Amino acid sequence: MLVKAEVLATPAEDELLLLGLGSPAPSPSLPSSAEEEEEEEEEEEEELRAAPPARPVEAPGGRGLRRAEGKRRPGRSRGAPRAARTAETAQRIKRSRRLKANNRERNRMHNLNAALDALRDVLPTFPEDAKLTKIETLRFAHNYIWALTETLRLAGAARLGPDGAAAAAVPAEGSPSPASSWSGGAASPAPSASPRLIFGGDREPPEPTAAKLEADQEMRVGQTPPWMM
DNA sequence: TAGGCCATCTGGTCCT
DNA sequence: AGGACCAGATGGCCTA
Protein backbone atom coordinates (compact mmCIF):
# COMPACT_ATOMS: atom_id res chain seq x y z
CA MET A 1 0.00 0.00 0.00
CA LEU A 2 2.61 2.52 0.93
CA VAL A 3 5.36 0.79 -0.90
CA LYS A 4 6.94 3.21 -3.27
CA ALA A 5 6.43 2.23 -6.84
CA GLU A 6 9.87 3.13 -8.02
CA VAL A 7 11.40 0.78 -5.53
CA LEU A 8 9.66 -2.23 -6.92
CA ALA A 9 12.13 -3.10 -9.55
CA THR A 10 11.21 -6.39 -11.11
CA PRO A 11 13.65 -9.23 -10.97
CA ALA A 12 13.94 -8.98 -14.71
CA GLU A 13 15.04 -5.36 -14.48
CA ASP A 14 17.41 -6.31 -11.79
CA GLU A 15 18.98 -8.98 -13.84
CA LEU A 16 19.10 -6.83 -16.87
CA LEU A 17 21.18 -4.42 -14.91
CA LEU A 18 23.38 -6.99 -13.35
CA LEU A 19 23.80 -9.17 -16.35
CA GLY A 20 24.92 -6.18 -18.28
CA LEU A 21 27.54 -5.47 -15.67
CA GLY A 22 28.55 -8.78 -14.30
CA SER A 23 28.05 -11.44 -16.87
CA PRO A 24 30.84 -11.86 -19.35
CA ALA A 25 28.42 -13.07 -21.99
CA PRO A 26 25.18 -11.16 -21.64
CA SER A 27 22.29 -13.07 -23.07
CA PRO A 28 20.27 -11.13 -25.60
CA SER A 29 16.94 -12.48 -24.44
CA LEU A 30 17.30 -11.48 -20.80
CA PRO A 31 15.93 -14.57 -19.14
CA SER A 32 14.25 -14.56 -15.77
CA SER A 33 16.41 -15.82 -12.96
CA ALA A 34 14.78 -19.23 -13.11
CA GLU A 35 15.36 -19.43 -16.82
CA GLU A 36 18.87 -18.24 -16.36
CA GLU A 37 19.55 -20.91 -13.83
CA GLU A 38 18.13 -23.47 -16.19
CA GLU A 39 20.38 -22.17 -18.88
CA GLU A 40 23.33 -22.48 -16.58
CA GLU A 41 22.44 -26.01 -15.69
CA GLU A 42 22.18 -26.71 -19.38
CA GLU A 43 25.60 -25.28 -19.78
CA GLU A 44 26.91 -27.50 -17.04
CA GLU A 45 25.39 -30.47 -18.79
CA GLU A 46 26.94 -29.39 -22.00
CA GLU A 47 30.28 -29.28 -20.29
CA LEU A 48 29.77 -32.86 -19.22
CA ARG A 49 28.60 -33.93 -22.64
CA ALA A 50 31.68 -32.41 -24.14
CA ALA A 51 33.90 -34.45 -21.87
CA PRO A 52 33.45 -37.94 -23.37
CA PRO A 53 35.41 -38.59 -26.58
CA ALA A 54 33.86 -37.18 -29.68
CA ARG A 55 32.04 -39.44 -32.06
CA PRO A 56 34.53 -40.96 -34.48
CA VAL A 57 32.83 -39.69 -37.57
CA GLU A 58 34.83 -40.77 -40.52
CA ALA A 59 34.97 -38.06 -43.09
CA PRO A 60 36.08 -38.79 -46.59
CA GLY A 61 39.64 -37.93 -47.29
CA GLY A 62 42.76 -37.69 -45.26
CA ARG A 63 41.66 -34.80 -43.14
CA GLY A 64 38.72 -36.86 -42.01
CA LEU A 65 41.03 -39.47 -40.72
CA ARG A 66 42.75 -37.00 -38.62
CA ARG A 67 39.50 -35.82 -37.14
CA ALA A 68 38.43 -39.36 -36.38
CA GLU A 69 41.31 -39.81 -34.01
CA GLY A 70 41.00 -36.27 -32.80
CA LYS A 71 40.16 -35.35 -29.24
CA ARG A 72 38.11 -32.29 -30.00
CA ARG A 73 34.69 -31.78 -31.47
CA PRO A 74 34.97 -29.52 -34.47
CA GLY A 75 32.44 -26.86 -33.62
CA ARG A 76 33.55 -26.61 -30.05
CA SER A 77 37.00 -25.26 -30.58
CA ARG A 78 35.95 -21.63 -30.59
CA GLY A 79 35.90 -19.61 -27.41
CA ALA A 80 37.84 -19.82 -24.20
CA PRO A 81 39.81 -22.86 -23.12
CA ARG A 82 38.00 -25.44 -21.05
CA ALA A 83 39.36 -24.34 -17.67
CA ALA A 84 38.35 -20.80 -18.34
CA ARG A 85 34.91 -21.89 -19.42
CA THR A 86 34.48 -23.89 -16.26
CA ALA A 87 35.47 -20.93 -14.17
CA GLU A 88 33.07 -18.80 -16.12
CA THR A 89 30.28 -21.27 -15.54
CA ALA A 90 31.00 -21.34 -11.85
CA GLN A 91 30.89 -17.57 -11.83
CA ARG A 92 27.58 -17.56 -13.61
CA ILE A 93 26.07 -20.04 -11.19
CA LYS A 94 27.32 -18.00 -8.29
CA ARG A 95 25.89 -14.90 -9.85
CA SER A 96 22.57 -16.57 -10.42
CA ARG A 97 22.35 -17.68 -6.79
CA ARG A 98 23.19 -14.17 -5.68
CA LEU A 99 20.39 -12.75 -7.80
CA LYS A 100 17.94 -15.22 -6.33
CA ALA A 101 19.08 -14.33 -2.84
CA ASN A 102 18.67 -10.67 -3.68
CA ASN A 103 15.12 -11.31 -4.80
CA ARG A 104 14.29 -13.15 -1.64
CA GLU A 105 15.83 -10.45 0.46
CA ARG A 106 13.87 -7.81 -1.39
CA ASN A 107 10.64 -9.70 -0.83
CA ARG A 108 11.48 -10.18 2.78
CA MET A 109 12.01 -6.47 3.26
CA HIS A 110 8.77 -5.75 1.39
CA ASN A 111 6.93 -8.04 3.77
CA LEU A 112 8.54 -6.33 6.67
CA ASN A 113 7.49 -2.96 5.32
CA ALA A 114 3.96 -4.20 4.73
CA ALA A 115 3.78 -5.26 8.36
CA LEU A 116 5.09 -1.88 9.36
CA ASP A 117 2.40 -0.22 7.24
CA ALA A 118 -0.25 -2.34 8.90
CA LEU A 119 1.08 -1.18 12.22
CA ARG A 120 0.99 2.44 11.09
CA ASP A 121 -2.63 1.99 10.10
CA VAL A 122 -3.73 1.22 13.62
CA LEU A 123 -1.73 3.97 15.24
CA PRO A 124 -3.35 7.33 15.61
CA THR A 125 -1.43 10.10 13.93
CA PHE A 126 -1.99 13.74 13.43
CA PRO A 127 -2.50 14.80 10.79
CA GLU A 128 -4.28 11.68 9.76
CA ASP A 129 -2.07 10.98 6.77
CA ALA A 130 1.21 11.79 8.41
CA LYS A 131 3.58 8.96 7.82
CA LEU A 132 5.70 7.92 10.74
CA THR A 133 9.16 6.74 9.96
CA LYS A 134 10.05 3.18 10.76
CA ILE A 135 11.72 3.96 14.02
CA GLU A 136 8.92 6.33 15.00
CA THR A 137 6.36 3.68 14.22
CA LEU A 138 8.06 1.13 16.40
CA ARG A 139 8.60 3.48 19.27
CA PHE A 140 5.13 4.89 19.09
CA ALA A 141 3.57 1.44 18.89
CA HIS A 142 5.53 0.37 21.87
CA ASN A 143 4.50 3.37 23.90
CA TYR A 144 0.95 3.19 22.72
CA ILE A 145 0.61 -0.40 23.84
CA TRP A 146 2.18 0.44 27.12
CA ALA A 147 -0.17 3.39 27.62
CA LEU A 148 -3.23 1.32 26.77
CA THR A 149 -2.10 -1.34 29.15
CA GLU A 150 -1.70 1.18 31.91
CA THR A 151 -5.11 2.60 31.16
CA LEU A 152 -6.65 -0.83 31.49
CA ARG A 153 -4.84 -1.45 34.69
CA LEU A 154 -5.91 1.84 36.23
CA ALA A 155 -9.48 1.42 35.06
CA GLY A 156 -9.55 -2.04 36.57
CA ALA A 157 -8.13 -0.82 39.82
CA ALA A 158 -10.65 2.00 40.00
CA ARG A 159 -13.54 -0.35 39.41
CA LEU A 160 -12.42 -2.81 42.03
CA GLY A 161 -11.79 -0.41 44.79
CA PRO A 162 -8.73 0.35 46.85
CA ASP A 163 -7.68 -3.22 47.54
CA GLY A 164 -7.63 -3.84 43.83
CA ALA A 165 -7.97 -7.52 44.43
CA ALA A 166 -8.86 -8.49 40.93
CA ALA A 167 -6.41 -6.83 38.70
CA ALA A 168 -5.49 -10.28 37.56
CA ALA A 169 -6.50 -9.70 34.01
CA VAL A 170 -4.28 -6.68 33.68
CA PRO A 171 -0.68 -6.13 34.55
CA ALA A 172 -0.12 -5.70 38.21
CA GLU A 173 1.64 -2.75 39.66
CA GLY A 174 5.31 -3.18 39.25
CA SER A 175 4.96 -5.67 36.45
CA PRO A 176 7.37 -4.88 33.74
CA SER A 177 5.97 -2.37 31.38
CA PRO A 178 6.44 -3.02 27.72
CA ALA A 179 9.03 -0.36 27.93
CA SER A 180 11.22 -2.26 30.27
CA SER A 181 11.37 -5.30 28.14
CA TRP A 182 11.76 -3.21 25.04
CA SER A 183 14.66 -1.32 26.41
CA GLY A 184 16.39 -4.36 27.67
CA GLY A 185 15.80 -3.84 31.32
CA ALA A 186 15.49 -0.14 31.86
CA ALA A 187 12.91 0.81 34.36
CA SER A 188 9.55 1.94 33.25
CA PRO A 189 9.29 4.62 30.71
CA ALA A 190 10.36 7.61 32.08
CA PRO A 191 7.97 9.93 33.01
CA SER A 192 7.70 12.60 30.68
CA ALA A 193 9.88 14.09 28.31
CA SER A 194 8.05 16.30 25.95
CA PRO A 195 4.97 14.64 24.62
CA ARG A 196 6.39 14.51 21.15
CA LEU A 197 9.07 12.21 22.41
CA ILE A 198 6.41 9.61 22.67
CA PHE A 199 6.49 9.49 18.94
CA GLY A 200 10.17 9.11 18.78
CA GLY A 201 10.65 12.11 16.60
CA ASP A 202 9.83 15.75 16.27
CA ARG A 203 6.27 15.34 15.17
CA GLU A 204 3.29 16.52 17.04
CA PRO A 205 1.42 13.77 18.77
CA PRO A 206 -2.02 12.65 17.69
CA GLU A 207 -5.15 13.63 19.48
CA PRO A 208 -4.84 13.21 23.21
CA THR A 209 -6.58 9.97 23.83
CA ALA A 210 -7.11 8.75 27.35
CA ALA A 211 -4.30 6.36 26.86
CA LYS A 212 -2.00 9.04 25.70
CA LEU A 213 -2.85 11.34 28.53
CA GLU A 214 -1.99 8.46 30.77
CA ALA A 215 1.29 8.04 29.07
CA ASP A 216 2.05 11.71 29.24
CA GLN A 217 1.47 11.67 32.91
CA GLU A 218 3.81 8.77 33.32
CA MET A 219 6.42 10.51 31.35
CA ARG A 220 6.58 13.63 33.36
CA VAL A 221 10.19 13.89 34.25
CA GLY A 222 12.78 15.85 32.56
CA GLN A 223 14.99 13.24 30.98
CA THR A 224 14.82 11.33 27.81
CA PRO A 225 13.88 7.80 28.64
CA PRO A 226 16.52 5.27 27.74
CA TRP A 227 14.09 3.30 25.66
CA MET A 228 13.71 6.29 23.39
CA MET A 229 17.31 6.19 22.39
C1' DT B 1 24.98 21.18 1.32
C1' DA B 2 24.62 18.17 5.32
C1' DG B 3 21.88 14.97 7.45
C1' DG B 4 17.97 11.78 7.75
C1' DC B 5 15.47 8.13 5.77
C1' DC B 6 15.01 4.56 2.72
C1' DA B 7 15.69 0.57 -0.65
C1' DT B 8 18.83 -2.48 -2.30
C1' DC B 9 22.94 -5.34 -2.59
C1' DT B 10 26.07 -8.28 -0.38
C1' DG B 11 28.49 -11.68 2.43
C1' DG B 12 28.18 -14.09 6.68
C1' DT B 13 25.75 -17.06 9.90
C1' DC B 14 22.18 -20.00 11.45
C1' DC B 15 18.46 -23.17 10.70
C1' DT B 16 15.75 -26.80 8.40
C1' DA C 1 22.01 -27.39 -0.03
C1' DG C 2 19.02 -23.82 0.15
C1' DG C 3 16.44 -20.41 2.54
C1' DA C 4 15.89 -17.00 6.34
C1' DC C 5 17.87 -13.59 8.92
C1' DC C 6 21.14 -10.04 9.88
C1' DA C 7 24.22 -6.10 9.61
C1' DG C 8 27.28 -3.18 6.90
C1' DA C 9 27.88 -0.54 2.65
C1' DT C 10 26.14 2.27 -0.93
C1' DG C 11 23.52 5.48 -3.45
C1' DG C 12 19.15 8.14 -4.25
C1' DC C 13 15.73 11.33 -2.63
C1' DC C 14 14.12 14.88 0.31
C1' DT C 15 14.23 18.67 3.58
C1' DA C 16 16.06 22.26 6.64
From TrEMBL:
InterPro entries found in the cross-reference section: bHLH_dom, bHLH_transcription_factors, HLH_DNA-bd_sf, Ngn-2_bHLH
Span of domain BHLH: 96-148
Region called Disordered, residue ranges: 18-108, 167-229
GO molecular function: DNA-binding transcription factor activity, RNA polymerase II-specific; E-box binding; protein dimerization activity
Compositional bias segments (type: Acidic residues): 34-47
Name of the protein: Neurogenin-2
Membrane spanning stretches: none
Domain of life of the organism encoding this protein: Eukaryota
Basic residues: bias regions: 92-101
Family matches, as SMART domains: HLH (SM00353)
UniProt biased composition (Low complexity): 50-60, 167-195
Natural source organism: Lonchura striata
Gene Ontology terms describing biological process: axon development; forebrain development; positive regulation of transcription by RNA polymerase II; sensory organ development
Keywords for this protein: Developmental protein, Differentiation, DNA-binding, Neurogenesis, Nucleus, Transcription, Transcription regulation
Cellular-component GO terms for this entry: nucleus
